[in-house]
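Morning F.,

Quick status update on the modeling queue. The single chain you submitted on Monday has been processed. Sequence for confirmation:
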Amino acid sequence: MLTEAELELTGGAQARVSPFADGFDGAALLQRAGFALPAVDVDRITVRYSGLPALIHDLRAMGETSALAGPARPIRRDVLARAAALYAERHADPDGRIRATFEIIHLTGWAPHASQPKPARRGSATVRLADALNTREITGEEDG
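C-alpha cells below.
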C-alpha cells in the first residue's frame, strides 16, 4: 500500500521495506552457498494492529526497513495518510483493526560429507509410485 500511495501522490516510489524472500529462496541460497540437504520451515504469524503507524513501528523495531544502499527520502505525511486509508480499505477487520502476516523462515543445512544420503539413480525405482500410494496412475493417455 505504501508503494501504491507513493506512486499515486509523488509519481515515484522508493523501497521502504526489506525485499521479500520465501522458503524456496532460502533453500536455493543454502544450496548456492554449498550446504547439503537443505531444510526449510516457515512459521506464519498474523498480528492485528490499531492502524498503519503501529505496523510501521513494529517493522522498524524488527529491522525490516529497507537495507538497500543509498539515502532514503523521508515519507511525506500525505503519502502515509493515503497508505493508511488504502490498507484500512482493503485489510481492516470489522472493528477497524488491520492485519499483517509475517513469515519467519528457519533454514538448516549441513556441510557436505561422503556419509550423507545420495539421491537414487534416475529410473532405478523398483516400485511404482501409484502402487505405493494405492491409487490409479493417470498418464494422460486415457480415453476420455
